[in-house]
Design goal:
Helices cover 63% and strands 0% of the residues. It has 84 residues and is mainly alpha-helical. The radius of gyration is 19 Å and the shape is flat.
């Protein structure tokens, strides 16, 4: 969590100062990976008596992006074979 918060600060500084630098690119990649891993379709239930949800006790599963990449690659090969 602290690394991601540090990265948000680095990105904010890069926007304000206009100099992204290597570290900011690293931070964007770190946040991209965190979002891709955490983006699942599990719903967090609403906590009665609160204003929302905290996700405590809910199991989330990272997606296997290799299956997506494999499908895209196979589709690309099939399309290229029939296009010409």
């Amino acid at each position: 969590m602290f690394h991601q918060m540090h990265c948000l600060q680095m990105i904010r500084s890069a926007i304000v100062q206009g100099d992204p630098g290597h570290h900011t690119r690293h931070c964007l990649n770190l946040l991209r990976q965190a979002i891709l891993c955490a983006s699942d379709i599990t719903l967090d239930p609403i906590n009665l008596g609160t204003d929302g949800t905290d996700g405590i006790g809910v199991v989330h599963v990272c997606r296997d992006w290799e299956k997506v990449y494999d499908f895209v690659e196979q589709n690309k090969l099939r399309y290229n074979a029939t296009a010409w």
